[in-house]
Write a structure and sequence with these properties.
single chain; about 280 residues; alpha+beta; Helicase, Ruva Protein, domain 3; Tetrahydropterin Synthase, Chain A; 2 domains; three-stranded antiparallel beta sheet; 10 helices; 10 strands; flat
Length: about 280
């Protein structure tokens, strides 16, 4: 049996919200495997680990921008939120977003910014601000015929959640379509979906969920003949989950009686959500 370190127990507790002894037992039962331990806790009905997919990360800020048919998102990490909300940090982040807009995010560290490479620019920023500063995640969408929108949620004077969304089958100049796209971007920031539709959910993810729900039904003493109906109900709930789940099946955060799918359908024709990206400081 693997030796269970106190730091691993504490980390699992922070992710799942379960008690220390439950976390220790979960790790003992799974030979210290954190992912399996999260499933073990869920199977026992102890923790909603599926809703806690985040990890500890450095502080930092996120910036997003849409320029014509290109949208970009950049995360810049640092040690304290004090630095993240400072003007120098914000100005550096704005420059990085513009580089991604203009030149893409492939091999970003080698791109030129203010006469030096992005890597050297970030190192210089770390030196001048006196903190460990690292370039985080970047996203770039290019859409010659779709509608792009972006949303940044600001907290404590810095962007902490960034979203980019692309709609297809709409006129990018249409005011109603632009309004819907922005509402969807705002919804994604709040509801944190993982996929666009249920068809996008990998088969192994669904199979894993089925096994967890079956174990939970067994643990709760539900009659075996009722398991299939219970499991299907849970799977349907999984698709609609907030956070998590499939975007078009989630209830719209501004109108719980409607879904994102209905919101998009209201644009008519072949309107669809093609893709989205969501980045939050402190989660991966």
């Amino acid at each position: 049996m693997a030796e269970i370190a106190a730091k691993d127990v504490a980390a699992l507790r922070k992710i799942t919200g379960a008690g220390m002894m439950d976390c220790k037992k979960a790790l003992s039962e799974t030979d210290g495997d954190v992912e399996r331990a999260k499933d073990w806790l869920r199977e026992k009905g102890i923790a909603g680990a599926a809703k806690q997919a985040g990890r500890e990360a450095n502080e930092g800020a996120i910036e997003v921008r849409v320029d014509g048919g290109v949208a970009a998102l950049v995360e810049l990490n640092c040690t304290t939120d004090f630095v993240a909300k400072g003007d120098v940090f914000k100005q550096a982040l704005a420059k990085l977003v513009q580089i991604v807009i203009e030149k893409g995010d492939a091999d970003l560290g080698a791109q030129q910014i203010d006469g030096e490479s992005v890597d050297d620019f970030v190192k210089g920023l770390a030196g001048s601000l006196g903190e460990n500063i690292q370039l985080g995640r970047t996203v770039r969408f290019e859409s010659p015929d779709g509608l792009l929108d972006a949303y940044k949620h600001v907290q404590n004077e810095r962007g902490v959640v960034g979203v980019i969304v692309e709609l297809g089958g709409v006129d990018p100049a249409d005011a109603k379509a632009r309004e819907v796209a922005h509402d969807i971007a705002l919804h994604i920031a709040s509801a944190a979906p993982r996929w666009v539709t249920r068809d996008d959910v990998p088969a192994d993810v669904i199979e894993r969920e089925r096994k967890i729900y079956e174990s939970l039904a067994r643990e709760e003493g539900k009659p075996e003949q009722a398991w299939p109906k219970i499991i299907e109900g849970k799977i349907n709930g999984f698709y609609k989950a907030n956070p998590g789940g499939a975007l078009v099946e989630q209830s719209f955060v501004k109108d719980q009686k409607s879904t994102i799918g209905a919101l998009v359908a209201g644009l008519g024709g072949g309107a669809t959500v093609r893709r989205f990206a969501r980045v939050k400081i402190g989660e991966e």
